[in-house]
């Protein structure tokens, strides 16, 4: 359990790994237990702080330096709306990658669809969209597959602006035998969604 304070009220929020849980999971659970809205509301209307420092939703509480039994503060966000965009570098099983700008409200599944629409004929995308249960996307040591691809947005894992790297993995035998690879980048396709003039090569 994690101790969360909102406007002077203190509640114990149950999350699977306690202080080892990603901050975005704690935020979602806290907004629910305080009755403040839905999952989408959580990541566009609130954020978490500890000792007046805003916590990264992409990191666990422990990685952010929050000790066990410490109180976390739930704070309403002035910058609500979640309308930002994120530059994504997506590594493919072949060793190549695609780079583009994706709205923060997009689900991981929608992100794959957007990349697929710009890179028609890429076998990894065809396989991933046909069989989501055999597809996973990895970000910051977290793996999302199956229904989680549709239910997880970029905003919900702490990405509303900036850039991020993801890796697409397919189960062995899916997509004509394609497998995930750690091989060096062999080629890049550069795509952009909704931000004319942005250089997707800015992704770090």
TrEMBL record:
GO annotations of cellular component type: cytoplasm; nucleus; vesicle membrane
Identification of the protein by name: Uncharacterized protein
Database matches in PANTHER family: TETHER CONTAINING UBX DOMAIN FOR GLUT4
GO biological process: intracellular protein transport
């Amino acid at each position: 359990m994690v101790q969360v304070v909102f406007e002077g009220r203190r509640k114990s929020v149950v999350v699977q790994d306690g202080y080892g849980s990603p901050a975005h999971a704690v935020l979602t659970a806290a907004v629910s237990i305080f009755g403040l809205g839905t999952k989408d509301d959580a990541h566009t209307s609130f954020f978490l702080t500890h000792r007046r420092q805003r916590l990264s939703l992409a990191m666990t509480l422990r990685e952010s330096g929050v000790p066990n039994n410490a109180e976390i503060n739930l704070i309403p966000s002035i910058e609500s709306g979640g309308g930002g965009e994120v530059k994504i570098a997506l590594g493919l099983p072949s060793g190549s990658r695609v780079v583009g700008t994706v709205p923060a409200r997009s689900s991981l599944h929608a992100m794959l669809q957007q990349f697929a629409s710009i890179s028609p004929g890429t076998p990894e995308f065809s396989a991933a969209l046909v069989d989501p249960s055999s597809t996973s996307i990895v970000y910051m040591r977290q793996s999302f597959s199956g229904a989680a691809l549709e239910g997880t947005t970029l905003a919900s894992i702490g990405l509303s602006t900036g850039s991020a790297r993801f890796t697409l993995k397919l189960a062995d035998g899916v997509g004509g035998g394609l497998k995930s690879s750690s091989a060096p980048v062999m080629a890049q396709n550069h795509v952009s969604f909704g931000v004319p003039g942005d250089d997707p090569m800015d992704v770090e």
